[in-house]
Amino acid sequence: MKELTTEEVRECQLSILKYIDQICRENKIEYTLIGGSLLGSIRHGGFIPWDGDIDIALRREQYEKLMPILSQKNENFELHYYKNNIDYQNYAKLYDNRTILKSNRDQMYNGRIGVHVDIFPYDKLPEGEENRKRFMKEVFKKSEALAATGFPAYISGTKWYYQFARVFLRLPLFLKYHGKNHEVAEEMDQLMKKYENIDAKELAFLSSKYFDKEHFPKEIFDEYEDIKFEGLKVRKIKNHEIYLKQLFGDFMKLPPEKDRKDHDFYHWYWDRT
Questions:
Q1: pLDDT at residue 158, rounded to an integer
Q2: Is this prediction's pTM over 0.85?
Q3: Distance CA 69, CA 124 (A)
Q4: Under a CB-based contact definition with an 8 Å cutoff, are residues 149 and 188 in contact?
């Protein structure tokens, strides 16, 4: 198999994003760039130079409208989603099935999916800081159980010492939940929707790497607009400043060079050569 160049990886990602955007526009579904992708679109006009991800998010009702559409057969793209596959995380990935991931550290997806765009559901939070933190901890605990439903997935980590620690820390969870992937994934999905019928003031992706920074006023997900991302016309929330300040502070300021790191433990290969 031939390894993809950085340019080829980004071409694949942009093709996936373009396809998602087309599907969303055709079906009147609103989505937004989030995280480093939203920051990159504002500060760099596309990818952050040292960041290789594309992340998007949708409010829960929009997310659940999109999933069945993306699950339909496509020549080059496939949806990795717990209702379609064994999945160890609580969000979806649309990937290019001509490519494959090879990694010594990412045991959740190694050899199972290719170059992808991450698709996150944004759910309602209970009111009050204490209730919010308690709920997010409950979801995080369930996400640990989900990750522990398979081996070697449960020892996956971005650094070798994370992997080593998880051999012991997640072992009790693995013994309890091994082989129950779909059951735990369904439980987690329902848990994340626990407050969907309340008039919530905030939304979040509930097991975010940003932890308690991940809570945003619901109203910023009411209005969207087009923005350029590497020449593509895609969607973002209009009021991106509230979101980006919450996660990154002075988001237009470049981080120190020592903090400009990419996922160097990912390697992508063409799977049909």
A1: 66
A2: yes
A3: 23
A4: no
What type of residue is 258?
K
Q: Quote the CA–CA distance of 150 and 147 in Å, as a whole number.
A: 7
pLDDT digit string, tens, across residues 8-62 = 999 999 999 999 999 999 999 999 999 999 999 999 999 999 988 999 999 999 9
**Confidence class for position 92, pLDDT limits 50, 70, 90:** very high
**Cβ neighbours of residue 92 closer than 8 Å, sequence gap 6 or more:** 67, 70, 79, 80, 81, 118, 119
Tokens found for residue 201 = 């003031």
The alpha carbon of 216 is separated from its chain's Cα centroid by a whole number of angstroms, namely 17
Q: Which residue has the tokens 């130079």?
A: 49
Q: What is the largest CA-CA distance in the chain?
A: 54
Closest by CA to 198, choosing from 125, 128, 121, 122, is 125
